[in-house]
Amino acid sequence: MLSGTLIKIISIVLLLLVAVVLILGIANLFKGGSKKASNKLMQLRVILQFIAIIALVGFAYFFKN
Prior knowledge:
Layout: H1 4-30, H2 35-62
Helix pairs in contact: 1-2
């Protein structure tokens, strides 16, 4: 079984990954980088957000006290 600490670490890492990809995408857009790269970063952000939401909801459901 996963411990509460490991679940918190996984949750924080997932949320930080989403934030980093979001910041990279916005920075690339504002500095005038290629729109294709910005679009790929935003697509990656959406996928990571989906994974993070599914994981967080799953953790909340299976590990509620």
